[in-house]
Design brief:
By secondary structure, the chain is an alpha+beta fold. It has 3 domains: 126 residues, 2-Layer Sandwich (Beta-Lactamase), CATH 3.30.450.20; 100 residues, PAS domain (Beta-Lactamase), CATH 3.30.450.20; 200 residues, Heat Shock Protein 90, CATH 3.30.565. Helices cover 40% and strands 26% of the residues. The strands form 4 sheets. It has a 5-stranded antiparallel β-sheet with strand order 2-1-5-4-3. A 5-stranded antiparallel β-sheet has the order 7-6-10-9-8, sandwiched between helices. Strands 12-14-15-17-16 form a 5-stranded mixed β-sheet. Strand 6 and strand 7 form a beta hairpin. The longest helix has 38 residues. 29% of the residues are buried.
Length: 459
């Protein structure tokens, strides 16, 4: 990387882009020929003028924000701005800025900001001009070295001629490992190498922009990039002497897109399952209801229970729920401030979406019955709710035991709640259940293979 003190005066003056050295308050300390022409000082010197006043809009605020970012070691790369030209016209530019401390001529420890301006209208042409000659290429290298994208140049055989610091940081290779190595062997997975070699051959004749590719870091981790390739031509002969490659990391974007696609498939799957569950609940509730009002009350309460479980799953992107949290959601709305009367203990694991639906329905039926007829219908009753994992049999057991309530009598007929507890809940997780009515309090157990209940990915 070439610092300002190393740049010859003629390189600074004749650079094919606007260059300026300014103080942190925006005062121009030095400007090259092209920038002077842009801002209306064709024959004079703009030194002492304030650059922020030449930026359209709130230039002072914009420049202060830029300085703050630079002082926090946040590089200002490809920042779009509108520059007021001397003739009154507006010139859209992209600027790159670097904060330097202790630069020559401004005092030890002083801060200066080195800024390059590239006309947005002629950006493509300007980038080609920057490559003319060795000195112009060095000027461009100082900008490239600060890029957060991995930038590398290779010969027509694919061997690396040069690479910026971001390339080493992203792919985790030392510079000694990079220079001279074949790019395809260094970062391209074997199954994509033939395709990459074809791209290099095409790029020797014309640019290739923004293709999504997968590349491998030194540690074997795969990342996704937007890859742009372009020929680097000899100025005198026009012959392609090298090829530049720019890798912009888009891993987060591609992973997000994949996850969205997965979620859309999952929503379709879950919607069908939900409709089936709602239909079953509606049929069974209607079958056991004594009146239209009883059907409406029972059906709406069960829909609310299903909705509560699904709200939890949606909030966690269908990645499962903690069984303790599911218990709290399904039971607290029924007993409100008397939450302590349900004592939860045992192995409180994370369960998968299918188990959450089954446990949610079972908990709703048990809690509703307890509030209406069982232990929670009096002030003295309580419930012991235990979750137990048996490591030997790899089963997970859910136990509900009521105590302190009124004497229990078996129901004269089995309603929808009994159907949910003894058939629907266990069948959905390949489990077994038992519902008993001892006089001292209702008891219920639901056991299932751990693999059917525990969260190990979406079912």
């Amino acid at each position: 990387m070439i610092h300002s003190g190393q740049i010859e005066a003629d390189l600074f003056e004749l650079a094919p882009c606007g260059l300026a050295v300014v103080a942190p308050n925006g005062q121009i300390l030095r400007a090259n020929q092209l920038l002077r022409e842009w801002i209306g000082f064709r024959g004079g010197a703009p030194e002492g003028q304030n650059l922020s006043s030449m930026l359209v809009g709130d230039g002072s605020s914009f420049f202060a924000s830029l300085i703050d970012s630079l002082r926090q070691d946040e590089p200002a790369e490809e920042v779009f701005a509108l520059l007021q030209r001397g003739n009154g016209a507006i010139l859209p530019v992209y600027l790159n800025a670097v904060l330097r401390r202790g630069a020559s001529g401004v005092g030890r420890g002083a801060e200066t900001v080195h800024i390059s301006f590239i006309s947005a209208w002629r950006r493509t042409e300007y980038e080609a001009e920057l490559r003319r000659g060795k000195r112009a290429a060095e000027q461009l290298a100082s900008i490239v070295s600060h890029s957060s994208d991995a930038i590398v140049s290779v010969d027509r055989g694919g061997r690396i001629l040069n690479a910026n610091f971001a390339f080493s940081d992203i792919f985790q290779f030392d510079r000694a490992e990079v220079l001279g190595a074949k790019l395809s062997e260094l970062i391209v997975p074997e199954q994509y190498r033939e395709q990459f070699e074809k791209k290099l051959r095409r790029a020797a004749h014309r640019p290739i922009k923004g293709e999504i590719v997968r590349r491998r870091r030194k540690d074997g981790i795969f990342l996704d990039f937007s890859l742009s390739l372009a020929p680097i031509r000899d100025e005198s002969t026009g012959e392609t002497v090298a090829i530049s490659a720019i890798y912009r990391d888009v891993t987060a974007l591609t992973r997000a897109a994949e996850h969205i696609e997965f979620l859309l498939r999952e929503v379709n799957h879950r919607s069908k399952n939900m409709l089936a569950v709602v239909q079953a609940v509606a049929r069974q509730t209607a079958r056991f209801a004594d009146s239209p009002e009883a059907f409406t009350d029972g059906f709406m309460a069960r829909l609310a229970a299903i909705g509560a479980s699904h709200d939890m799953l949606v909030s966690r992107d269908w990645r499962g729920v903690q069984v303790e949290e599911l218990t709290r959601i399904q039971c607290c709305e029924l007993i409100e401030s008397e939450e302590s009367r349900i004592v939860v203990s045992g192995d409180l694991i994370e369960i998968n979406p299918r188990a959450a639906e089954s446990y949610g329905l079972a908990l709703h039926e048990l809690a509703t019955n307890a509030v209406k007829y069982g232990a929670l219908s009096t002030t003295e009753g309580w419930v012991e709710l235990t979750f137990a994992l048996d490591p030997e049999t790899q089963t997970y057991r859910f136990s509900w035991r009521e105590q302190g309530g009124p004497p229990v009598e078996p129901p004269e007929r089995n309603g929808f709640g009994v159907c949910v507890l003894t058939r629907t809940a266990p069948q959905s997780i390949n489990g077994e259940s038992r519902l008993d009515f001892p006089q001292e309090g209702l008891t219920y157990t639901l056991s299932a293979p751990l693999a059917q209940v525990a969260m190990s990915g979406l079912d």
